[in-house]
Write a structure and sequence with these properties.
The chain contains twelve helices and ten strands. The protein is α+β, with helices and mostly antiparallel strands and about 325 residues long. Strand 2, helix 2 and strand 3 form a beta-alpha-beta unit.
Length: about 325
């Protein structure tokens, strides 16, 4: 059964501020995002009967918000959990398991207030990666990049176009953490201090405190809400591994290809129909991998694609994925 247009996003919100917020805990960030999203939909927390969250478990969040949902989902597979939650919420609404689905994320990633400790020495990563020098995301994510460099001739300079284009979008967003820091160029990225080869500082995403939430309802109800709804056309999900070191092929993400194929098939569109793209960008290389896996460029072609810039009438560099570019990407 197709879930195309069976549900819609009726409310969305972020916490008022993002960045360094030591006065907020993990739970208070969840609560602020949840309350704002519900209000954005013109609803009350008591209207929510489905909770989808993982950094705070659904039972923990329902307790904190003072509600008793009749459907919960705590699927935890890292950063993409919240995209998967959208899919699960659509399915739950279509099945009649809930009427108002609330998806919530909150994280005190910078201040580390009320956060749980990361992996222990007894964990698989602690046993089989840490002894070999893997100590945090930059060291593990560097593996696929170097393999891509080796197989396809991709370069650090090509990769440096990703953060340069992303900063152009940040300059248009008052809530962006680096909004006031000004533009950067590929040269600036290359000149920033090395974190773990081939990543320099400006190749790495910011660590921040903040939260966000979505409210979904059945499509037939969506037009009754105060904001114009966003209908869910297609979705997909998959999981291939937890540890980067366990990738079958370091130059491609198996789960991304499976999930993308399902999403495109259900939506009835393909990459050439997409004119706005949001891709996970923990590091500058991550969107490059996904551009290839989702079929926007051929295998090994993301580097030349991104490095193909042009000059605007005012002399400004126009990046392929930046403002004025052919494929706006990560526009927040």
């Amino acid at each position: 059964m197709s879930l195309r247009r069976r549900a819609a996003i009726a409310g969305a919100a972020e916490t008022d501020r993002l960045g360094t917020l030591p006065e907020h805990s993990r739970m208070s960030l969840h609560a602020e995002a949840a309350r704002k999203a519900v209000a954005d939909a013109g609803l009350k927390l008591s209207d929510v009967d489905g909770i989808f969250s993982t950094v705070a478990g659904p039972n923990e969040l329902s307790e904190y918000l003072g509600i008793v949902p009749r459907y919960v989902d705590g699927t935890g597979v890292g950063g993409c959990s919240y995209m998967i939650f959208v899919r699960h919420a659509v399915a739950a609404i279509a099945a009649g398991y809930c009427d108002v689905a609330l998806i919530v994320h909150g994280e005190s990633g910078r201040s580390w207030i009320d956060m749980e400790a990361p992996g222990t020495p007894a964990s698989p990563a602690g046993q089989f990666e840490a002894p070999y020098g893997i100590a945090g995301a930059p060291t593990s994510y560097s593996l696929p990049v170097l393999r891509h460099f080796h197989e396809f001739g991709t370069t650090k300079r090509q990769m440096s176009h990703v953060p340069a284009a992303t900063r152009e979008w940040a300059l248009l967003n008052p809530k962006a953490i680096m909004h006031k820091a000004g533009p950067i160029t590929p040269d600036d990225v290359m000149a920033s201090r090395v974190v773990c080869y081939p990543f320099n500082l400006l190749d790495c995403c910011l660590v921040a405190d903040g939260g966000g939430a979505l409210v979904l309802v059945a499509a037939e109800r969506a037009r009754d809400f105060p904001k114009r709804p966003v209908y869910v056309l297609g979705s997909g999900e998959s999981a291939a591994h937890r540890q980067v070191a366990m990738m079958r092929d370091f130059t491609t993400s198996d789960s991304s290809r499976v999930a993308a194929a399902d999403a495109f098939r259900e939506a009835g569109i393909g990459p050439t129909d997409v004119d706005h793209l949001m891709l996970y960008d923990a590091f500058s290389f991550t969107p490059m991998l996904f551009l290839e896996d989702l079929g926007f460029v051929a295998r090994g072609e993301s580097g030349p694609f991104l490095a193909d810039t042009k000059k605007g009438a005012d002399g400004r560099t126009i990046y392929k994925t930046g403002p004025g570019g052919a494929l706006p990407m990560n526009t927040n």
